[in-house]
Amino acid sequence: MDMIDKLSRLPLRTLGAAALALGAGGVAAFVPAQSATAAAEAVPPQVNEAVTALRDISTMQADFVQTDRTGQRVSGVLTMKRPGRIRFQYQDGVPLLIVSDGKALTMIDYEVRQVQRWPIKNSPLGALLDPNRDVARYARLIPTGHPDVLSLEAKDPKHPEYGTITMIFMRDASAPGGWQLDSWVALDSQNKRTTIRLSNQKYGMSVSNNMFRWKDPRRSAPGR
Asked: What residues contact 72, with CB distance under 8 A and at least 6 apart?
């Protein structure tokens, strides 16, 4: 069984597969050239509120539950440190780690001793982590019917193979910017959906950069 088959069969790996499906160039590639004034006029205020909430996060830890398109779930702990760092530590028994050191997002499969990397700026998680990414210019507000829930969708209509990411925010006065990141959904070009739901969010704690390092399983492979 090759790596692609393993990614499609194992629900814990669908987050990495969905990120890879967005491909090089990222969701910001379709943004048309326009003046700052025109861009500001076109952006709904709720979008700016959500973007401000993201940028106000310095550090965050939360429990997460990852659900694939069949409804299967795995859980773990997410640690984020802006700019650029995130770690998905999966539950015991799951030999997978997804981590960004601020430059590249890396998926490490300790079971088969494989590593895949791609630039964080080209990942959908760049919308969460890159302080220079102007999310407001390429995100679309999705009506939720509830004043305390915001939904932002980002996709490139010229490149459907890049997929879609949708971020959900809940109004919370105790969260940075007054909006708490509640969940996000990645949908690839084959309509394979991966959902990450957060709980027990905590902000502003001290997080060492060592948290975003990882052990390369290839160095311990036989014959090395």
From this structure: 11
Residue 59 half-sphere exposure toward CB, CA atoms < 13 A: 10
* Dist CA 183 CA 167 (whole Å): 6
- Residue closest to 128 by CA, chosen among 80, 188, 198, 68: 80
CATH number belonging to domain 3-26+44-201:
2.50.20.10
Q: Find, among 147, 109, 94, 93, the residue nearest to 16 by Cα.
A: 109
Q: What is the pLDDT of residues 103-138, one digit of tens each?
A: 888 899 988 888 988 777 666 666 667 655 666 667
Q: Residue 62 is encoded by which pair of tokens?
A: 């939360």
Taking the C-alpha atoms of residue 224 and residue 221, their distance in angstroms, rounded to an integer, is 6
Residue the block writes with tokens 């999310």: 135
Structure token pair of residue 7: 């990614």
Q: Where are the domains of the chain?
A: 3-26+44-201
Segment 143-158 mean pLDDT = 83
